Amino acid sequence: MAQYNFKKIVVVPSFKDFTDIVLSKTQRKTPTVVHRHYQISRIRHFYMRKVKYTQQNFHDKLSQIIADFPKLEDIHPFYADLINVLYDRDHYKLALGQINTARHLIDNVAKDYVRLLKYGDSLYRCKCLKKAALGRMVTIMKRQNQSLQYLEQVRQHLSRLPSIDPNTRTILICGFPNVGKSSFINKITRADVDVQPYAFTTKSLFVGHTDYKYLRWQVVDTPGILDHPLEDRNTIEMQAITALAHLRAAVLFVMDISEQCGHGIDDQLKLFNSIRPLFTNKPLVVAANKVDVIRLEEIEQDKRAMIEQLEKEGVPVISMSTLTEEGVMTVKEESCERLLAHRVDMKMKSKKMNNILNRIHVAMPKPRDHLERSPFIPSAAPVKTMEVDGVVNKKKTERDIELEMGDDYSLDLKKKIRLARGGEI
User: Fold this and answer.
1) Whole-number Å distance between alpha carbons of 334 and 81
2) Is the dihedral of CA 162, 168, 169, 173 positive or negative?
């Protein structure tokens, strides 16, 4: 999969700025003086150069726009679906397709007028052809004004998207609006997500990073989801659904057991069951938040029975309070541990693991008889072993001699030199 840095997409100018940039560059970079007494070949070349240079400028700038914007087929399905949710896939592809068509049209216009300029028989005729060529190029760009404006809006929004790595260790926080998802990510990461006492404070995806077992973890805060059919969900909710569908993450479903969010426990469990197909093959943890208001043991019997049913199905339910920070680290550690175990299990089941195991042979020696064979240690080994208390036959270094002699020590660099025939230095 191609990896894109959306912050490096080139700015898309409006039609007016686009033509001003290209035509002023043509004026600056090409000769500006021509006289009627010049040879006709020189006059033709003068105007052909202007047409070709303008066409090349348009071509380069449009090519850069097309190349910088991500191709939906090449990027990760998470980003492809996110772009579809935010900007509409068809509109996005149509705008890029129109820019590509404009590039080809400008190339064809330049080719046609360069061919006509070869047969220009006067300065006036060549000048008119050059003027017509540049005018047609500008007209083609004028028709693309709406596409350019749309792509600039997409570029600005893409550059503000958080940098989410779909393949790294990720904890995905989801649940009803106003249940404490943003408060949780603020507690365990250095992210600063706005927290307010009303629903849909978080309108887009937010990313924070935390450490666990010397590994970097990505924590994604999603907007709140309401319990209604998929086709009725708005753009804000669809961002959370897209993240749940495509990110290989540990899912942390946050519940408000105090029901201060405006939704009862039964409604929250209905939402949990409706989006449960998105949790398939993902580690799952349910966090019962706001135990500072009411403890899990104090809620009504029928509601507690519904939560206990989750635990019987193998889903851990952990109490926590983002206000007093009770249980916050327990929830984080449980989510991380489950995801680590899941990732190891997936790697063990992969074909790559089988290929590696085929090349490894672990020898497991078996005893050939019942005789006990103790390890053999040579007699000289203990003598040469360096002991902590005292060192046997340790050779003195210059440093040891220096410490013994103190101020009387003088370094003699020639004392180890051996002369060839017993001579003196």
Assistant:
1) 29
2) positive
pLDDT (mean) for 138-158: 92
Backbone angles phi, psi at 216, to 5 degrees: -90, 130
Q: Token pair of 33, please?
A: 């003086």
- For the segment 132-160, the average pLDDT, to the nearest whole number, is 92
Q: Provide the CA 9 distance to its chain's centre, in angstroms.
A: 15
Residue written as tokens 């390890």? 375
CA dihedral 290, 293, 297, 303 (to 10 degrees): -70
Neighbouring-strand partners of residue 172: 220, 251
- pLDDT in the model for residue 215: 87
Q: What is the pLDDT of residues 41-89, one digit of tens each?
A: 898 899 999 999 999 999 999 999 999 898 888 888 888 888 888 888 8
**Cα angle, residue 226 at apex, residues 203 and 324 outer, rounded to 5°:** 70
Summarize pLDDT for 245-270 with one digit per residue, the tens.
888 888 898 888 888 887 888 888 88
CA atoms within 13 A of residue 204's CA, in its CB half-sphere: 13
In angstroms, the CA 87 to CA 90 distance is 9
CA distance 236 to 233: 8
Q: Which residue has the tokens 């929830």?
A: 331
> In 3D, which of 261, 196, 189 has the Cα closest to residue 220?
189
Tokens of 392: 């046997």
Contact 220, 249 (CB under 8 A): yes
CA atoms of 172 and 251, how far apart (whole Å): 5
Q: What does each C-alpha distance from 379 to 202, 366, 392, 394, 395 come to in angstroms?
A: 74, 29, 14, 18, 20
Looking at the DSSP bridge assignments, the partners of residue 256 are 289
- pTM summary value: 0.69
Q: Across-strand partners of 170?
A: 218
Report residue 112 as tokens. 């046609």
pLDDT value at residue 179: 85
Please give the Cα distance from 124 to 43 (Å, whole number): 10
CA distance 200 to 1: 33
pLDDT of 139 above 80: yes
Nearby residues of 200 by Cβ (< 8 Å), 6 or more positions away: 177, 223, 224, 236
Say how many C-beta atoms besides its own lie within 10 A of residue 154's C-beta. 22
